Input
Amino acid sequence: MKNNQDDESERFDKDNIDNVENNTGDLSIKQKFYGDLYLGKDWESLISKHTSRYDIWMFLNLYHELNVSQISKYIKQSKSTVSRVLKAMESDGLLVSRRGKIKLGGQERIPPKYYRISEKYRKEEEIERVFMEIPSGAQELHDFLLSEIRNHQSAIYNVIRLVNYLSSSLNHLDDHLEDIEKAKDIYKEFLSGINEPEFNFVFLDKNRFRKFYDLRLEYILKLKKLIMEQELDADSAFVYFDSLLPLKALLKLYKKVI
Output
């Protein structure tokens, strides 16, 4: 992420909040955050081509660069399967590769090939939270709405896949309940203490939302600073994601859809 924001760019423009009328039909809150949760519909269709693609993607996000043998170990798939999937992902533009070097005294005849995520999908920009006017032109409006749809669908896809990892872990624990000591070991190692998953659900009305908005922006900026302080330790990585949903509006629209 960029680290050149000055105090002025980091400061939240409260006038935007204060000037919002009760009827916000002409405004849309747009969070511009280009990262792995906002990659668009094309990325989603490509990453869904094979069941192992998303797992590979997540490990490359953690370790930045891995070879076939390393990825095969992490995702519990054969080297031939992993190699085939990696070549296809590279062909689709998701990954790029480079040849490594043969270690002195090593037994390899061919240098290992290392894969990493394409820079096209590594693009990150500073967090900017603004109220945007909905475009008036037909083509601009179409492009704007399509972008909104793709961004949110991409985020939903990622959240579902991440939560599915947790669901699989809980199923694994459930499968071992008859061997209570084994179940205890699984719980202690993967699902308790610092590794305990956390979920928070908070309901806000419009007045509380405006106060929360200030607090959240301040928190996001501090979180961003924390992230940039040092490189991620992939062997002890956590993932944090949050969402802010207009519950009343979603329920009202849901009734119309069904």
